[in-house]
Structures are given as structure tokens and as C-alpha cells.
Design a protein that fits this description.
8 helices
């Protein structure tokens, strides 16, 4: 396992220990709004508000929230952190002009989005 992968795993475990409220707060700092988080995870706005207040999530919602959080951290390696949400809301030519946020909502596209992010981090225009 690479040092970067170990760091990502450690950061994920640290963030989980901080609770879902810390994750939602960090996503807000990345430029996401509650509607974006709800859309990506398939949760309701009320559920996202519950997470913000320290509530718990179903396993499915938590998995999708962690995917969004992890992918957002990867995007933040290449662009200004508070613009990450905008990147996810913008149609991307490498995703057949789909918005990454919409693909997350549909499920099953995490690896595809991650591949585009790797290209972004390698210096390819996305």
C-alpha cells in the first residue's frame, strides 16, 4: 500500500471518528450545499440536516457520503478547495458531459469519476 493510500485511509478513519457532522462541515467548506450532499447520497435534506447535527446514517448513505468526501479530497489536490462543489456540479466532457454529482446519485460511477480526478491531478484538463 502506498503512503498516499495509507494517509487517505487514516484520514477517513479520523473523520469517521469525528462524526458525520464533521464530514458535512468539511464538504460545505469544499463548496457543497446540503442539496448537493443529499443528491449525491440519495438522502433527504432533512437527513443531511440530521447528520449536520451529529446524527447517524444508514450504511448505504454513510458509504455514499464517504465516497463523496474521499473524491472531494482528491479534487481539492488540484483546485481551490471551496470550488470543489462547483467541479462536481459542472458537466464534464470526460464523463460524457454528465455532472459528477449526478453520476454519484445514480450510483456505480465512483471508479469512473476517480479516473477523471486522477487525470485532473496529473495535469489533464477536465
Amino acid at each position: 500500500m502506498t503512503r498516499t493510500a495509507q494517509g487517505e485511509i487514516a484520514a477517513t478513519h479520523d473523520r469517521r471518528a469525528g462524526g458525520l457532522d464533521a464530514i458535512v462541515r468539511d464538504l460545505r467548506e469544499y463548496g457543497f450545499i446540503h442539496e448537493d450532499i443529499a443528491h449525491a447520497t440519495g438522502a433527504s435534506l432533512r437527513t443531511v440536516a440530521t447528520w449536520s447535527a451529529g446524527g447517524t446514517a444508514t450504511r448505504s448513505h454513510e458509504d455514499r457520503l464517504m465516497d463523496l468526501y474521499r473524491l472531494s479530497g482528491l479534487v481539492a489536490e488540484s483546485i481551490v478547495a471551496n470550488q470543489v462543489g462547483l467541479w462536481f456540479r459542472t458537466p464534464n466532457r470526460f464523463l460524457d458531459w454528465h455532472k459528477p454529482l449526478d453520476l454519484l446519485h445514480q450510483g456505480g460511477s465512483v471508479l469512473r469519476i476517480e479516473g477523471v480526478i486522477e487525470g485532473l491531478n496529473a495535469g489533464y484538463a477536465t
